[in-house]
Each structure stands twice: as structure tokens, then as C-alpha cells.
């Protein structure tokens, strides 16, 4: 058995072809940073615009090149992964084997903590992966600094705790307890009791929007702004009780899996779900999003795990197996758990074809409740009925961290600064939409658009034409005299015109009325009532 | 010809004094008639005059009136256009003189004799005097003559007569002949002959507008060519993404030394200083060790001495003044200070009298003091000293302390008096009240309460005794009214009696209580109560006033009664806080609800403990909670108003108010509790979640069967909601049909057509939806109004296609998404300009028109910036 664990390996360099390789590589990265193609400038008729856009594109290109260069030289670490030797299967490699291969620091990240009294544990990591919150169902909440395995705070709330999430940093966390969710500070002080939420089953925090989302026993979805305390929205899913809820990290859309096998996606500014899709014939048991937001994994009661492409809303792959908990790692590995068995799928070929990568069984009889990959580490945290354990999954974490995004080695000063920055950059709730890249683009046209002026005019012309061409009946007693006919035709034309003119007048009147700004309206002379 | 000329002259001269007259302008028609061809030359004026001249040559006679033949017409001496005889025109070109010489001679002969003679004499005289020939003096005369004959100078347009006549014409040949034999003659002649051969008629010059147009065109062409040289630089500036106007970074002087070096004295003062500073000697002295500076700094001994003396004098004066001030300050005599103060005041008063400004200031000061007093209540026994004394008891103190306290209170009253004065309406009452106050404050404070009670008692007894006469007439004299009145009166009497009893009892109580109670508190309560009393005092009087109203309807009666009772109770409880609850207004309101029961209740209340009273009040006001709240609020208000009352009150207060507050709190609590209960109830009713039944569980277990159908149905519903299905054409009975025929035919064709169209439209819309081909997905296409502001309503200006626009904004340009080196270029504004820089007009410079502005960062550079080079490396990195 050969276990190949590449952790931080310097780039292999072959002097003969390095230049080519590097330039190719750079091109690839640059393409990524260009975020799509520019417009075809040659097709543009407007010379001035063409020039302007050419300048812009050039700048974009430079920026992307600089970014590629930075990525190339400033992100030297590359994630490793397990590789089978010959017919060896990676999922047969046990944790012990890995532990014996890796360095001491990494092997320390493999542990089991047994807390038999307080029931199944749920876990939550901060985005930097430094801190972990663990909540036992029977009221045990712990905040752990994962770097030195130091329990910062442990508290016993003496009632059911269903879920726990960190707010914008490790200083605050929210716990869904028996009757209401509560917000605690890092040192365990209860700061708020969010009574409006009711008995919450699952909590999610939208980091960029500072929204705490919760779903309660009655299937009511609530968004609360944690900076102002304002209840941003209160939505009724109307699809019953569920505790399957996950936020899409890409766009902030909240997905809720229901018992009817449907999955609905929500945003705080619309009462109806953005998307409702039938994922499974049975109840949806678990749900996870890929960090890039394009992939979603759902698990159903009918022993199926489905991987969806959210751009097309189509199933990419269906994997067999029961699943109680799902999680995507930063690098795109998918962890599933059922009973005491944890399985990790990966698309190592990059073709979005997930296959079995690793398996792990916690001690028999333990019921896994939650799996959560630790960011920036090759570690999977497993919360189960007898505490929690941590295993090594090579290649799961992002090897290079960006201290502007999340810094595992953050000092308190940095944390404070970042807090202020993130507050200043807080996004309003309406920016949550399926495709946030569409922000700033032209507003989609309404379905029932008002006819344009030309259209109205054309319509009027047509009506007049029609009125002119009405065949006249031949009448007796001088009623078919040419003068009469002409008069009649004239009248018909007038009649045809009338509605259009009236409409026009009405519009004009309206515009006249609304011309003045509100503050000046009171100075308008009132028309004397004749 | 000569004849005509003569005639002409004659005609001119015949006018005598009218010699200068020009002929009238003839209209064109007349000219035509006279067959005078009108010659057009450049100047119409001259032409006209010419023709006029011609005309006059053909004119036959003179107008009769002018000829004065037979003296038929009265002679008109002076026409308007006549010039005076002595008129001399100087404006005559001298060339004419030569040409007209012979003329003049002849003319002079037959010109008017007198004038001639005169002139001749004059010239002769001159000749004799000067000794010059007569001709020298004749010039003027000649000129005059010329003017008379020819109004215009000779020119090509106005040729002299001989030239026109042909005999005196000068040809080129004539001019050339004298040159014969000279050096260039042959050349000249050749060119002349050539000219003659080639001679072409010279065209008349173009009309002015045409000429100008041509000029303009030429100028335009020229300018166009000239302007094109700017094109490249203008183009470059227009294409440049950024234009810099941050030229001339040279700030100039950067050090003080540099600035001073450049300094040049301009004003006189500066020059003087400069001359002194730059004095050669001084400079020299500085340059050496500076020892000579002392030499230059010469002062006479007298000056120094004088200065010293003056200084010494000033010092001694200052010292004496200081000593005096010290001594004065040390004086402890109050009399002295009082006198001093009085003096100062007097002076100030004088100033006020004399100076309105000072008066104003004084008034302001007074106002300020008053405000300060009201704010701080400094003189209202709030100082530590006063508190201590009051705590000990005022009557234990000696006369002086008491007086001081009184003084303080007086001062307070004095200082805050103006506010009372402002309320003119209640001035009379106040005055009496103030009397009371004075009484109260004058040492007999402790008896004030007793006095008050007695007063109240007196008044009630008065009311009791002072029976009104029953009216003998009117409605009130009716027997049943009389009966009713009596009954009421009896009841009222009973009330008053009761009140009287209470007064007495409370009086006794008070007298008992007064012994142990400290005097100081009494003072305060007394004062405070007096304040309240101010309001109450008129009320007994009012009762009498309202006694007319006494027999009115029950409501008003109740009102008065309620007021009465309110007063009585208040008077009775003067020393407790209880009255706070019986705000007259509130009571009045309540009394309107149920006055009869209220009387009793109030009596009860009066006797009961405070907590109970509030409770009962709440009960009685239960009919209208709002009113209750009002009263309680008022109560609270009064409480807060009296918050600064004495200690004894403060002791009782909590006892009084707590239950009230609790009551309110409870009320609100119960209210909110009810709501909460409601809320819970509503939430309970809203969510219909139940524990799944067995059947449900089974269904869920076998859910795979019909979820798809369910979803299909759901999707259909959602689609119908978003794109509603068109209504089916319905025939309304009685509309569009007379008989059964319509029914048989079905709905009219246009209706069907409309329906079909709508259906088709819907199908199309459905096909366009994103989820058209996805059976398992419903994608909502509802508009999100809130998110609409995140999109542009229209395509921004230079863009014509949405696609191009969206592609142009695909890249974020913020610092979070781009490397540091790229951000400044991405977010650089169109114009870079430091504030305060003057943008100079563009200067011409050679630019290669074919060169594309390569450096985008500063394509439209006016002047290149030195510090920009830091962007360079980033640029070089491009593949």
C-alpha cells in the first residue's frame, strides 16, 4: 500500500519547457480572472465607444495578467490528494494509515472527543477554520479554538439545542434552542433572545448580508438583520416542518428541502420561492452547496444522492446511498454520512463525475448527525451522538488562504478591522438573487410592457385606415350622396381616432399633474370650480 | 454751348441772394419724361446731382415767383435753403480754381456789382496795406465762385465741363509724348500698345454681398486648412481615457531662506526697513563679530535717564494702587461694603436712566438672573446650609438665621416674580395669594395649615348657612322643580356637613400631629400648598357663582358637586400627597360618567388609605379606561411637579404612588399579556401543523408514487398564477342575442378569435420561460420590485446593445477584486486635476496623427507627470 500524500509541495520545474508551461498556465489563470469574454469591438459601429471599450478591455487584461501573476507566485501551495497505487483503491485507506504518513501537526488533527451525555452534536466552523462551535442536543454548547484545541467557552443551557451558527466572527454565535434561538457572545453571555423566530430547527447566517435566517417548526422562514435587529422578512414556506436548510454561498439564496421531495429556494424580498424543484420522490434529508455555487447535492429518503447543476437545474449525477448529512469541501469533495458511516466523494478528474474517494466509520453505534469540512485544512469534522471526531481527508481544504477573505491566524486587531470593513460592505437584502452577476445590468423588460409611442401611432394609423375603408351601403333617398358619404367617412375616422386622442390627453394631464416636485405642489394655484 | 452756359450763369445770378440754390430732386418718372438718361455710376448721389445739373441746363425759364416779374408775387426774402450772404465755404478743392479761371473772370463781370465793388475795395485796401498783388487776396472769392458753379470736385465721375465737351480731353498719347526720348519710354509705349490691343471692358465690381460671400469662402477654406493642424492633438485628447491637468508641479520656494531671498521691498515702510537692515555699516558690523553694533546703537544719556524716571514713576503708582486695593479688600465692615454696593448700584441706576443701552443690558441681566434662579432654585432652601437648618428645625434657630432663611425665600420670590407678573389674568388673585404667602412666610408658617383648614371650614359653613332664595318665578318655580332642588340641596348640605366634620377632625388631628412634627417641613408643605391653594382659592367663590347653575341639569350639578367634593377632599388632605389623584379635571370627567356613586366613593376615598383610593378610582373609571389613564397620568404629572417638595411628603409619596404605578403597570401588563396570548393564539391557528397521523406516515413512506403528479399540478398552478389563462368566451344572456339563433351559433367569431389569440400568446410566453423544458422545476419569474433599483432602467448612453453593455461591466473594478497595481488605472477618472490648478488653453504641438495613444494611462497628456512611472512595471508584465 502506498499512500501518496502531497501537502505543500513546491512546483516541479523542468527548465527546458518551463517558459512555455508557465505562459500556458498563466494564460489559463488569466482567462479565469477575465471573467468571460469581452464584446466584439469590431462589430461596433460607434467609433468612440469602440475606443473606450478597447481601453477598458486592455485595462482588464492587464489586471487579469497581474492577478494571474500574483496567483502564480503568491499561492505556492498546492493541495495534495490520495492516489491509489495500481489496483489499490483510495477508499480502502484507513485513517490510521494516513496518520502514520503525515507530519505530526497534521496527525494531531485526527482525534475523537467522546461526550456521551449530551446527545448528538452539531458542528460549525468559522470561515477561517480557526474556531468551531459544537452544540449537543441536550444543551451543551462549546466554542473551541481548533488551532490549539483550547475550549474557549463551554456552557450548558439546559434545554434542547438544535443548531448553532457563528455570526460574522467568532465573537458571537446563535443557538437554536427549545423555544427560541438565542445569541451569545464568545464568553457565553446571552445577548439576545430572538422570540419572534419561534422554535427554530435550523439556523443559517448570511455573511455578506448580515442576515440570520431560521426555519421554525411551522415551516416559517425568517430573516433577521443582526446589525439592526430588524426582521427583514418572514416567509411561510407552506410546505411543512423541515430542518434541511442551507445557504448558497455564491448568491445568498437559501435552499430548503421539504418532506414532499421538493426543494425551494428563497430570498428575503419575495414571498414566493425563487425556484421550486422536485428533487426526490421521498423527503429530502440533506442538502449541500458547492462553494462556487453551481453545484448542489441533495439526499433523499429513497437512498439516492443527487448532484445538481444549478445553472441548468439538471441532475448531473445520481449516487446511491442513504444520507443524513452532506457537506462540500472548499476543493469540492462531498462528504456524506449515514449511521456511523462517513463517505467522501470526489471528482478528482475535474469532470464533475463524483466517485468514491474515502470512507470512514466512526465507532459502531454512533449516529452521525453532522459532517463539516474544516476550511483551509484537510480535515473533516463529524458530529455524532457520542461527541465529535475529526478525520483527515487529504485534498479537501484550500491550501492557500487569502487573509483578505479569511485569515486563520487573525489577530484581534485584524478581526476588529475586518468587522468594520465587513459592516461597511454589508449588502442589502435585495441583492440576494439567483444570478447576482446581473446586478447593474439592464432591467429585464416587463411582461406587459406599455406600447411605445410609435406603436400607438401605428395602431392609430391602422384604425384610421380601417375606418376609411369601411364599405358604404347603398342607401336611397339621397342618403348616398357623395357629400353624405364623405361626411360619414369623416365621422368614422374621427370616431376611430377618439380613443387614442383621449388616452393621449389623459396621459398629458397626468404628466401635468405630476410635473412639480412634491414640495412645490402646494403652491400650485387651485383651479376655480366653475 | 456758350449760350447755354451763359444762360445758366444768368439764371444763377438772377436769383441774387439765391445764388447757391440747387435744383429740386426730380422723381424718376419726370426724368424719364424729360428723356434724360439716368447714368448709373457707383454713387447714386453724385449721379443724381449730375443729372440735376443737366436738367437745369435744359430748363427754360425761372419760376415766376422767383423771377419777380411784374412784381406779381410778394418777394420772399429768405428761403429756408438759402444761405446767408456772407456764407463762405472753405471746403473747396483748389484744383477747380485752375480749370475755372476763365469762367471766373467772365462771371465776375456780370455778377452783382455791389459785392464786387465791396470786394474790390477790400482787396485794394489789403493790397495797400500788405503790398501784395490783389490776386493773393482774390483766392477766397474765386473759391466762392467755384462753389457756386460746381458743387463737386473734379473727378472721373464728375468731369469738368471741358472734358465732357471733348475739346480738352487728354489721351494717354498726350501724357506719353512729353516722355519721348526718356529712358523707359519704349517700354512704356509697348506696354501701352499691348494694353490697347488686349483691352477688354472692365467688369463692374461684384455686388457687395457676393463679394463678401466669396471672401468668406476663401477665408473658410484657409481657416479649415489652418485648423486641421489641431486635429491630431484634439483627437488624441478625445481618445484619451484620462486627461491630466496637473502640470507645473514646481511649487517654487520651499524654504524660508529662499522666500526671503526673493523678497523685494515695495511699500515705503518696507523700503525704509530694508534700507536700515541692508545698511552698509550694519551689514558690515554683522559680518564682523558684531561688536561694532553696540557702537552704532547710540543713545544719549538724557534719553536713558528720562526713560528710567518714567518707569520708576509708573512702578510706584502701580504699587500704590495695589496696596490700596489690598487694603480695601481687607475691610470687613459690612456697612462699608453695603455702602460700596449701594454706590455701585446707584451708579448703575444712573447709567440706566441716562443710557438706554445700559438699561437694556440691565434688563437682560435681570432676565438672566431670573432664568438662573428658576433653573437652579438656588434661593429655595436648596443649599446645604439651608437644608441643614431646616433639618434641625427652624424654630430652634435664632432670630438671625430665621431672618436669613426668610430673606432667601424673599429673594427667590423676587427673582422669580416676573413670571407671575406676566400672567396678568391672575394678577389680582395672586396679589391676595401673595399676601397669604407673606403671611405664611412671616414666621407663622407652622400655623398656615391650620389656618387654611379653618378658612375652608368657614367657607363651607358659609355655604351651608347662606341659603339661597328659591326662585319665585320661571321654570324653577314649578313645584316639581322646587322639590327636586330641595332634595338636591339637602344632599349637598349633607355633603358639606360631612366635609365640615372632616375638617374639624382633621384639624384636631393636625394640631395633635403638629406637635411632634418638625416645623421646617411644615414651612415647606405650607409653601407648596399655598402654591396649590392659589388655584383652589377661587373655587369656593366659584361655587357661589355657579349656584345659578346649581339647579341646572344633573350633569352640571354633578360637575359642581364633584368639584366641591374634590375641593373639600383636597382641602382636607392639604398636607398629604393624596390630592394628587384628585385632579379636578379628571374628577370632572369621571363624574360625568357616574356622579352619584362617585360622591360616596370619593368620600370613602378621602377617608381611606391612599393605595385603596387609587384602586377604587380605577374601579370607578373602569367604564372608560382612557380616562382613568388620563387621570393617572395627570396624577403622575403632578407628582413630578411636586417632586421637589419636602421630606415628609417624600416619605408619603412612595406609599401613595406606588400602588398607582403598579396598577398601571399591571394594566399594561395584562394588556400586553392579552395581546401576547392573542399572538400565540394566532400563530397557533395559522400554522396547522399536527403530529403526522398514521395514515400520513404511511403515505409519506410510499410517497414516491404521486409526488410527481402533485408537483405537476403545483407547477400548473404557479404558471396559471403568473401567466393567467385567458377567460373562455361566455355568452351573457341578453347580450348580443335576441333569439335562440345566437345560442345555436355559439359565441361570436370575434370572441373566439380573441380567445385564440390570447391562448397563443400564453403558449408563447410559457415557451419563453426558463423552466419551459424542465418538468421538475418551477422558476418564478415574478418581478422583485425591491431589486429593481439594482438594475438600470435603460441602456446607458453610448451603448446600443445590451450584450455589449453587460460584457463591459462584467469585470469588477474595486480593490477587492483586482491586484493593487491594476486598481488605480481601472478607477482613474476622466480628468485628473488638482484643485486650484488653472487649466490653460490648449497649445499647439506636433503630434504624429498615425500614432495611436499607446500609453492609455496618460493618452491625453498635456504635460507628463514625473511620478507616474510607478505604473510602468505593471504595464511591462503584459505577456
Describe the structure.
The complex is a heterodimer of chains A (530) and B (879). Chain A is of the alpha+beta class. Chain A has 7 helices and 28 strands. Chain B has a 3-stranded parallel sheet with strand order 3-1-4. Residues 1-20, 40-55, 92-110, 140-148, 419-446, 516-687 and 853-879 of chain B have low confidence and may be disordered. Chains A and B meet through α1, α2 and β17 of A and α36, β2, α39 and α40 of B.
What integer value in Å does the Rg of chain B equal?
Answer: 62 Å
* Number of strand elements of chain A: 28
- Give the terminus-to-terminus CA distance of chain B: 105 Å
Low-pLDDT sequence parts of chain B:
1-20, 40-55, 92-110, 140-148, 419-446, 516-687, 853-879
Going across the biggest sheet of chain A, name each strand in turn: 1-28-27-26
- What is the percentage of strand-forming residues of chain A? 25-35%
**Share of helical residues of chain A:** 10-25%
Tell me the span between the first and last alpha carbons of chain A. Answer: 102 Å
The dominant shape of chain A is elongated
Main β-sheet of chain A, in a few words? Answer: 4 strands, antiparallel
Q: Major sheet of chain B: order of its strands? A: 3-1-4
> What is the overall pLDDT average of chain B?
66
Q: What's the shape of chain B? A: extended
Residue windows where pLDDT falls under 50 for at least 5 positions of chain A: 1-15
| Helical segment count of chain A | 7
Instruction: Name the assembly state.
Output: heterodimer
Assign the structural class of chain A, choosing from mainly alpha, mainly beta, alpha/beta, alpha+beta, or little secondary structure: alpha+beta
Report on the biggest sheet of chain B: 3 strands, parallel
Gyration radius from CA atoms of chain A, angstroms? 32 Å
Summarize model confidence as the mean pLDDT of chain A: 89
Structural class estimated from helices and strands of chain B: mainly alpha
